[in-house]
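Board notes (copied after class):
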Amino acid sequence: MKKLVTIILLFTTLNCFSQTKDYKAAYEISKKLITEYKLKLSSTDSVVFKQDLQIQDLQSIIFVKSKLSTQDSLHISLLVQQKDFLNKNINLYKKELDRRDKFWNKPVFGIIIGVAGTVGLINAVNYTLP
C-alpha cells in the first residue's frame, strides 16, 4: 500500500510539474500571440488611417473637378455671349459701312459739292453785284 501511495504521489507531482511547464509555455505562447495581435491591430489601424486619407484626397479631387466643370460651363456660356455680342457689333458696323458707302456720303463727294457750291455762290454773288 505504501508503494501504491508513493507511486500515486510521484505521478501527481510529475503531473503538476509538467502542468506548470505547460502553463508557462502556454503563457509565453499567448503573450507572443497577443503582441502579434496588437502589432496586427496597429498595422491595420495605420492602413485604415491611410485609406481614410486617400478617401479624403479623392473627395477633394471630386469636389475640385465639379467646381472646374461648373467654371468651364460658365466660361463656355460667357464665350458664347461674347461671340453673340461681337456678331451684333459686326452687324452694326456693317450697317454703318453700308450707310456710309453711298456715293453722296463719301468725303470726296462732299469736297466736290463744297467746291462747286462755293464756285456757284461766288458766281451768283458776282453777277448780282453792280
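Comment from the instructor: The helical segments are 2-100, 107-128. The first helix runs from residue 2 to 100.
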